[in-house]
Amino acid sequence: MIGGRARNWVKVIWVCTILTALYLPILSVLLASLANTRYMRFPHKVWSLDAYRGAAADYTTVTLHVISLQIAVWVVLLSVVLGTLGAMAYARYDWRGRTLFQKMLVLPIFFPQPVLGLALLLSMSALGIAPSWKTAVVAHAVWIVPIVTLVISIRLFGYDVAQEEAAFDLGASRWQVAREVTFPALWPGIFSGALFAFLLSWSNLPLSIYTSGADTPLPLWLFSRTATNYSPLVPAIAVIGTFVSGLVVLALLLLRRVLSRAAN
Amino acid sequence: MMRRNPGFWFALPLIAAMLLFFAAPLVIVVWFSLMPPRSFDLTTDFGLQNYQSAFADGYGPPLMWSLIGATLTTAITAALAWPTAKILHRHAGRWASIVTALIALPIFISESVRLFGLSVFLMPGGGILAGTLKALFDVQIGTILNTRFAALLGMVYIHFPFMLFPMLLGVGMIPADRIEAAQDLGAGRWAILREVELPLAAPGLLVGGLLTFVLCLGANAEAAILGGRAVTVITAAIEQRFNYAQDWPMGAALTVLVILVTAALVFPAVRRIDLNRIIRR
Amino acid sequence: MTKSPAALSLTGLTKRFGAMTAVDDISIDIREGEFFTIVGPSGSGKSTLVRLLAGLEAPTSGRLHLRGLDITAMPANRRPTAMVFQSLALFDHRSVGQNIEFAMKMKGVAPEARRLRALELLRLVRLPESYYARPVTQCSGGERQRVALARALGSDPEILFFDEPLSAIDYRLRKTLEVELKELHQRTGKTFIYITHSLEEAMVLSDRIAIMRAGRFEQIGTPDEIYRHPTSRFVASFMGEVNILAVSQTPAGPVFADLECAAPEAAGAFAVLRPESLRPDASAPVTFAATVTQKLMLGSRTQFHLRAGQAALIAEIAAGSGASLSLGETARFGFDPADIAWVQA
């Protein structure tokens, strides 16, 4: 076609612009963390890692990570258990209430998160439950469990149930079928679901704002310190926190590789 | 003996959890919204006075700002995501996968980190953009920080991937031969978009649009970090009622209003969309 | 000499994808009102060729004229041609009527006029008018074929292209649709250009057939010419089961190398012999001994698989016309050299 080359350039430029726009703010955080002055004066007169030294020496850094990790681990466990069972009901079995179940399940996803957090805060206060990291786990789970259920279901849709029948036919017990056929088919979905759950919980701000009480997870601390009491410590901890979540994902991927090698 | 299908038993834990932690809190919120102002107990003393005073006390504007923000963000992200989705689908391959992964990655970086980044980028004087321009070209620029526009920019920035990914699924539902057939039958670029591409991609567009709109409806971090005091969104208004004014019934009534708007949009859409069909691919 | 310009005229049409040449320098004139069929195996470039003609691909070089008008650079949506796609490519989100009216809607024809024409087309393709409002997703395979045909006709095209539209249909329905297509061609008088991998289908439908191989036309001719005088083994092999015998030259004259018998009046390097020309007849002009290795009943005929020297041959005999040969039996078979089609390559 005429002008095909020009059109391709327009496309390349468009995609590059989108990517640049998405990553400039993230890069900005990194740049901001390399200052040693209390007020941002970019370009920095002195580029330094002082903020990281400060963050490493500050016990707050550890506390924030521990709280975020605590919440994320519980959310992952809840999501994997409920999500796997839910995915079986969503995609594997045909049952009477399935269509309704499928439609109701997506409602929490299509719900404004801060409003969900506020609703949970109000009802817990009404029931006399003090908000803490535990209530944050519940809030996260309400939003994340349905997502994980869908992620696992995607894998299950491609699954041929006749494989289980074949295993039965070949003399496997119910338990053996689950272990040898069903679980291996589900495993990739469960793994991606767990990754999703961890990352979504670790980075979540809108649900944590109203439900975590006195326990402050990482994103909430960053949010409040951005508005007041800014120092280069804020971007430094933001970078560290993002880095830690990357490390956790890497560790999980490594773990999967080790497990699958052990299985073979 | 009655035997239920195993599907029901597999669904049961999830159903129980959702009733307990999603449906029940919403019921409590609705209940509270019907209580007399500034009460802290759930009684049977129902009344609608909170709703009556919601608009009289000036909570209309925050709700309106949230609706306007959500509408604009949905429209802008859709306009940006459509060409992107078309390009990524058309040139599927290694590069497209890498670009797709790069677009997905920021979702997993906390929005407080990214919004903070956007604010230091836009900051006047010593901000990343202003500072760089000053140092390199000796150009002084102002800032859009602490305006409604900045808040909108933040909303678009945060929600773009939420629009793009459902849209990618939608664009994937357009078979190439349908476009060729339309072309062959005399359809121009716009006619193809209107008659073939948009209807065939509709499920993806609807999911993306709905998700973006609903997430934006509750969004308050963008307005707080980037908008300064330029705009009060509904979530901020509710929080103010709950925490500072200690008027739970009023906060609950405002929450119910947001939930009603959400439900009015989500219920008809969820009834129409066959999510299985989108996911199954 | 004045001659009306060809309906479609291809001049040196070539399409390359990287190092691969899909369509290699094809030139041909297609006459007004002709049913022209291009037959080739998969990968022969026939689909690419029809996509070039429809304007869905741009040629690497060469020109394309429609009634003398150069349309090489004209995009598909402005060409007065229409295609029936292999997948049919029906708009599943629209009704039967909306599908048929699509091209008219694009041209801005008024709704009422569109509807009348659509109903007329429904009758033409033998679908009841009640199908007008039906979603295409509720149509059967054969009905979808007819809707696709009506949709293409709805653009009132000068030329209709068909990209193997019947390839995914079962045998009986295909036969019915072939007849209907032929009748439709006669009734509308339009130029049809048809792509298929089945020479049998081409024989039934066409005025002229082009056999395509590796981006080029191997042979062009009427069904009768192709059937009687294939110019190569490639074309002959397209006709289904045929016997191909290599001829070699010896001091004693040409012989059928595999059969070890003389090849009188050899007019080419290979002899193409139809199964029905081979008979268990010791008095035929050319005879040889053959052993029956397989015997298949084909209804009206009986097929014998034979081994004669190095050659494996196929003979077909009308059922009931004697020859009660059984498996493993050796007998003398023969043929008349007049039945041979000679090819050079």
What labels would you give this structure?
heterotrimer; B: 281 residues; mainly alpha; MetI-like fold; C: 345 residues; alpha+beta; Rossmann fold; OB fold (Dihydrolipoamide Acetyltransferase, E2P); six-stranded mixed sheet; five-stranded antiparallel sheet; 8 helices; elongated
Structural commentary:
The complex is a heterotrimer of chains A (about 260), B (about 280) and C (about 350). Chain A has about 260 residues and is an all-alpha fold. Chain A has helices at about 5-30, 50-55, 60-90, 100-105, 115-125, 135-155, 160-170, 175-205, 205-210, 220-225, 235-264. Chain A has a single domain, classed as MetI-like fold (Orthogonal Bundle), CATH 1.10.3720.10. Chain A is built from eleven helices and no strands. The mean pLDDT of chain A is about 90. Chain B has a single domain (about 60-245, about 260-280), classed as Orthogonal Bundle (MetI-like fold). Chain B contains 13 helices and no strands. The longest helix of chain B has about 30 residues, at about 60-90. The radius of gyration of chain B is 23 Å and the shape is globular. Chain B starts with 5 loop residues before the first helix and ends with a helix. The mean pLDDT of chain B is about 90. Chain C is an alpha+beta fold and about 350 residues long. Chain C has a six-stranded mixed beta sheet with strand order 6-7-8-3-9-10, sandwiched between helices. In chain C, strands 13-12-11-14-19 form a five-stranded antiparallel beta sheet, with no helix packed on it. In chain C, a hairpin with a 2-residue loop joins strand 16 (about 300-310) and strand 17 (about 310-320). In chain C, helix 2 packs parallel to helix 4. The two termini of chain C are about 35 Å apart. Classes of the chains: A mainly alpha (about 260), B mainly alpha (about 280), C alpha+beta (about 350).
Order of helices and strands of chain C: EEEHEEEHHHEHEHEEHHEEEEEEEEE
Order of strands, widest sheet of chain C: 6-7-8-3-9-10
The CATH topology of the largest domain in chain C corresponds to Rossmann fold
Tell me, briefly, the overall form of chain A. globular
The CATH superfamily title of chain A? MetI-like
Q: Give the helix tally of chain A.
A: 11
Q: Any idea what the radius of gyration of chain A is? A: 23 Å
Low-confidence stretches of chain A: none
Biggest beta-sheet profile of chain A? none
Number of helices of chain C: 8
CATH fold field value of chain A: MetI-like fold
Residues in helix, % of chain A: over 70%
CATH A-level architecture of the largest domain in chain C: 3-Layer(aba) Sandwich
CATH superfamily of the largest domain in chain C: P-loop containing nucleotide triphosphate hydrolases
**Low-pLDDT residue intervals, each spanning 5 or more residues of chain C:** none
Number of strands of chain C: 19
Number of domains of chain A: 1
Number of strand elements of chain A:
0
